[in-house]
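check this one:
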Amino acid sequence: MKLKFGMVGGGNGGFIGDVHRRAAQFDDLAILVAGCFTRNMEKNLEAAKKWNVADLSRVYASYQEMAEKESQREDGIDFVIIATPNDTHYEIAKTFMEHGIHIMCDKPLAINAQQGEELANISQEKDLLFGVTYTYTGYAMIRQAREMIEAGEIGKIVNVQGEYPQEWLAVSLASGHSEQATWRHDPNRSGPSGCCADIGTHVECLISQMTGLHPRRVIARFDRIPATVKLETNVQVMVEFDGGVPGLIWTSQVAMGHETEVTIRIFGETGSIEWTHLKPWELRVTRINQPPQIYTANRDYLYPAAKELCRLPSGHIEGFYEAFGNLYRSFCMNLIAKKTGGNPGLFRYPTISDGVRGIQFVEACLESNAKGNVWVTIE
């Protein structure tokens, strides 16, 4: 079975929209048949032609029209991709779910937890799948880490460290021109948080996917560097995870000399696991009083759930597009299984619950910072 999907957004030459499109079709499980790629109808049609939408009558002037008309077609879309700025996710997702259409949404899920929880309730009531594209969770070695931890290979987790330093915003401000910088640091478009919502949620979700642990309390400090920006650009968070496990998260968009250097370190009673985006095909595993071992992708010693996400022979580098493709592969496998009564196997993807937890994490950090860096509990 091949699924049919549509897209909202992505048609103005932006980076992430085209990544979504490519990733959704990476494994030939779905085909793009409809869209409202931009509000400019001329560019909308240009995008549709470029992306090989066969029937241009399915290129819509608004997402509302798209949801209405696609839901009435016998061959209507099975799911929609939402690849628009943060402030629009809630209304678009709500509209499509009200028309019975499954969702794949760029992160963050919504502007606030109230919106996220409402979307989660609609998803549950209408029995609709809802994925959130936390990109880095799609790497095979993230799943390998989860399988190893669940198997007790490093013992009980005692500490977690996560960081995501970037320099892009500092570079963009210095250059004096960046559409990304303009909307991402506009509270009306991005919401009340900048760095924490944009990349802090990536770290929080990665830790969750690797360990199964979720933040329960936080102490957060937000810094605006330079002071002229409207939202925080540097965030330091002390975290207490499930079971009282302590941790630290640092994220920055003004860390000169660092590009996209996500790193997660998980320490257990009998060993540790480390993953970095600089070498996403590797895990550094150390068992107590033994030399470190390097696990690499698509080797026979990996757990089956991790091997299923590997696409190339060992030694060949898989990257960002493959990881994004794994999110869509997992989502599509689950949606096909839902439609056919089949079994999706071991494939998982970040769900709307992960999206809600991400917003709750951000809101707790905002409150902690506003109150002078005090402990705030996440309900």
